[in-house]
Design goal:
single chain; mainly alpha; 2 domains; two-stranded parallel ribbon; 57% helix; 1% strand
Amino acid sequence: MLHGFLGDVLSGGHLLPADSAAQGFAGFDLLWQKQYVKMGFSESLLTSVLVPERAHVVGAMRQNVAEALANADAEHFEERAMLIELEHRQARYVSYMHRAMSAYGPAWSCFLEPEVLDAFLELPLAHRRGQHAYRRMIRIQSPSLAAVPEATTELPMADIGAPAKARKASRFAETPFIWRVQRLGSNLERMAERVAGGWVSRRRRGHYVQLEDLARITDPEWFRSRLADSRLVEDWFQPAALLKMFDEHMGRHANHAVRLNNVVAFLEWRSGNGL
């Protein structure tokens, strides 16, 4: 199995928009919402499932990220944000995800290789935007991998981040009406996904595993048993609140997939370390 869970950061897939890399609190707030909250826990939702004695961790997390951002060894805000996210993703994923995947067969994490890390960290931001350098590398070095349809477009990998002077004209350049119809359709899909709470998803591709269905179809009772295990949950979470979140997800009233995975991973970490 080929992993790329650090590649999103190094390749530029998680860069903030070029016109919104503001300095100071506005830039940090945008970073926090986009990269650290996203589909995960908002401050209010996390507080609602924690026991009152642990509520202080919400503010501590923001403080931790703010301090890491201020101390990152880079000049520009975006570069500092990339470095701290890389560090945090390594701590979260490499410590357990690679080991878990390796249990099922040979697993290779190409973005853990020092040479690859160094090469991407030296890339100027201009070559990371739109994952230009990353996509070019894949197309040249592994055409067969580039030929696999992308989940978002269902088309082979394209160099969507090429600089303007080298970018080919859009195949819709002479038919702007088609482009606008497709753009409208994409926006309607996003709206339907939010309203339906999981019943409708623009990411439902037959060839890809759907994260939101993991707990629903693999082993729901295993997830429920972990969330209801008082030995692991106590001192941190309110069991009733966790089970309510689980039932909302199972009933497709909301998509709590990332939140449930985060909680279960934390509980398994506690169990594995005897904490």
